[in-house]
Amino acid sequence: MTSPVLEAIYRRRSIREFTDKEILREQLHEIVKAGIWAPSGLNNQPWRFVIIQNRDLKEQVALQTHYGHIVRDANALIAVFLSKDDMYDTVKDVQSSGACIQNILLAAEALDLGAVWLGQILKNKLEVNKILGLADSFDLMAVVALGYPAHRSQKSRRKEVSELLLKEF
Ligand SMILES: Cc1cc2nc3c(=O)[nH]c(=O)nc-3n(C[C@H](O)[C@H](O)[C@H](O)COP(=O)(O)O)c2cc1C
Questions:
Q1: What is the CATH number of the domain that holds 130?
Q2: How far apart are CA 76 and CA 78, in angstroms?
Q3: Average pLDDT per run of 10 along the chain, which is 169 residues long?
Q4: Model pTM score
Q5: If you take atom 6 of ligand 1, which residue's CA is the nearest one?
Q6: Measured between alpha carbons, how far is 142 from 146 in angstroms, rounded to an integer?
Q7: Residue 60: which of 116, 120, 115, 130 has the closest Cα?
């Protein structure tokens, strides 16, 4: 079975090593736009974004996670937040943010960029808000690190459908 969407889903790997090549602002906006086109409950679009390419700010964010080396190496970061003032149901809004982040990863893949979803940084999410000058009403969901892949040799594996399918009627 081939389709551009399925190919991107299966080809996408978490990329954690990047070249120095600059990502264009237009590309980052395209990636955010793909995030915005994710589905959300009631189409409430509770997500908000911060794009970071500034080296000093990137370093400050890097210090908030065990994966600081990835943040430093990345050419750009997209921090994805939920706007608490625009939420209507915690579970559904968090699910929507996950769909948004996955769209961001797939858009990066489609543009031949590499990306990784960073969640460990959430343990310091309030600190990240302070660094970015954001009110606590913005709840950090993930930081996506992006850049041109230094290589594409990452391997990953998934369980078989038969292991995960509970029932089939
Ligand atoms: C909620 C979530 C949090 C994650 N946090 C991190 C992280 O902090 N650091 C990291 O290197 N990768 C992180 N990842 C990436 C996963 O490790 C990765 O998706 C998984 O190992 C499967 O590999 P693949 O994306 O290459 O298929 C996270 C992924 C998700 C969905």
A1: 3.40.109.10
A2: 7
A3: 92 98 98 98 98 98 98 98 98 98 98 98 98 98 98 96 98
A4: 0.98
A5: 118
A6: 13
A7: 130
- Ligand 1, atom 22: nearest CA belongs to which residue? 156
Domain ranges, residue 27: 19-149
Pocket test for ligand 1, best of 66, 116, 128, 157 (most atoms within 8 A of CB): 116
Domain contains 99: yes
